[in-house]
Amino acid sequence: GAEELALLEQLLGLPKGNKYGVQGERKIPVLQTNNGPGLTGLMTIAAHLVKQAKKDQLLGSTVEEKAVVQQWLEYRVTRVDGGSSKEDTRIILKDLNVHLEDKVYLAGNIFTLADILMYYGLHHIMVSVT
């Protein structure tokens, strides 16, 4: 959560200095903002950072791309972060394999926030696979 957001900040070229914390048993990331209430949740904070970096194209260019990006961000939080068994991992990797058969990136032919956060979410799994 918080480590991924710090990596995303760096990737986006944002200055360091955001204060991240976690809340609850599931350690949901929280960003304390200077002007207003804190932001809660990986996807909410990640989208905020993308907009702060003025790289809105990472959220998708067309209505359809934006919907697909949101779909994969939701998949990341509900399935990838929620999956813990070997069977969950097998299903997740199978889903990705099928989806990416005829695509370069998750949202088609453009690199988006979904690709970044899925990479961060799956990296620890992929390094342990033979």
UniProtKB/TrEMBL annotation:
GO biological process terms on file: positive regulation of DNA damage response, signal transduction by p53 class mediator
Domain GST C-terminal residues, every copy: 48-130
GO cellular component entries: aminoacyl-tRNA synthetase multienzyme complex; cytoplasm; nucleus
InterPro entries: EEF1E1, Glutathione-S-Trfase_C-like, Glutathione-S-Trfase_C_sf
Protein name: MCA3 factor
Organism: Alca torda
Gene behind the chain: Eef1e1
